[in-house]
Amino acid sequence: MSSGQASTLRRTALYAQHLALGGRMVPFVGWEMPVQYKGIVEEHHAVRQRVGLFDVSHMGRLELTGPDAASFLRGLVTYDIARLEVGKGHYGVVCQEDGGILDDVYVFRLAPAGGGSASGGEQRFLMVVNSANADGIRDWAQRHLAPSLQATVEDRQAETVMLALQGPDAHRYLARLVPSLAEGLGRQCAAEVSLAGVTVFFSRTGYTGEDGVEIILPSAAGVTLWKWFVEHGVQPCGLGARDSLRLEAALPLYGNDIDTTTNPFEAGLGWVVTFDDGADFVGREVLLRIREAGVQRHLACLKAQERGVIRPGHAILHSGRRVGELTSGGFSPTLGVSIGMAYLPTELASVGTELQVDVRGRLLRAQVVKRPFYKRPKAG
């Protein structure tokens, strides 16, 4: 990386911590982020077997408030977030008018600031967006805020740190921090608590296929909390492990598996598109037509049937004919084989279909398998 390139990259408040821990820093969608510390495979296994800690402060954090915040947000997101109760969250997508995906997001309904009642009219939401789209979705939201709506959009990214604590031991650490949350924070739920005089946001979603929590708090306090986790034995993890973990869980990566050229139905995300509430949202009519007509391709999971690493961009063949290319791919440390995802014609996207992947001129046998590749064992 040249000095000129480095100077244009943004850094999270944890940058000095990454350097101190030996993090190998790389450019990532405009940020300088750690790709690994001890090694991608070691960090991957730490999350699957114990617990790992990610700096995800590069992700966007938009707070939407006001009496009309719910209806405003409903007009942007495909899922009916208006049905969310305080403390609940849900995955959704933001589409453009033609149904193409602008971003996949997580939306949480929060209690009104100052302890007010949501039933009193004041509404408050947090929308977490992908780092590559943080500025774009913020601007998109502001452009779609009609003058008649009483709502505001505030960008909380610069003033906060966002951590992801992931793995089977994550809740043991949460119990030491906030005992009341260790058992009381359900899946897809969120809570704000006061720790040492600082308001801290916790949510329980994840992007690794494991259980765990996301934590958002002011930058200075975030540095302190990061150090606490590391000092108490939590393995810091970089972008490399984050990518291999999410791939095993078959979770889409924006810019690879979904973008403006894909729609929710072909991406397997039709479950986050709500039509039955009758609300109008950007792309609704086109998406309704797509659902009724059906799609010509589906995002499918492929597992290599022999040694070799399949990667994004590798061509996929069926009976000697090119039928697609990998959108994501790599070696699975958990499964010990190469895996990937790709859009395939509907007739080839069913489980069991035999295919070939062109790995630099070598045709490697692969098979369509059930989604996801890895599923976390049930507790107990």
Question: What would you say this structure looks like, in words?
Answer:
It is a single chain. This protein is α+β, with helices and mostly antiparallel strands and 380 residues long. The protein folds into 3 domains: 146 residues, Probable tRNA modification gtpase trme, domain 1 (Gyrase A, domain 2, 2-Layer Sandwich), CATH 3.30.1360.120; 96 residues, Alpha-Beta Plaits (2-Layer Sandwich); 85 residues, Aminomethyltransferase beta-barrel domains (Elongation Factor Tu (Ef-tu), domain 3). The protein contains 10 helices and 19 strands. The protein has a 6-stranded mixed sheet. The protein has a 6-stranded antiparallel beta barrel with strand order 14-17-16-15-18-19. The longest helix is centred in the middle third of the chain and has 13 residues. The radius of gyration is 21 Å and the shape is globular. The N terminus is likely disordered.
